[in-house]
Amino acid sequence: STPLRTKAGRPEATVLTTEHRKCKHTEGAMKFAVAVALIVAAAVTARPRSKREAYDLPDGAELIVGSIKTTFECPAKNGYFADVDNECLIFHVCNVVTHADGKTEIQQFSFFCGNQTMFNQLSLTCAFPEDAVPCQNAPDFFYVNDNIGIPDAPFLTDADVEKASALIAGARKSKA
Question: I need a surface site. Which of 76, 95, 119, 152 has the fewest CB within 10 A?
Answer without folding.
Answer: 152
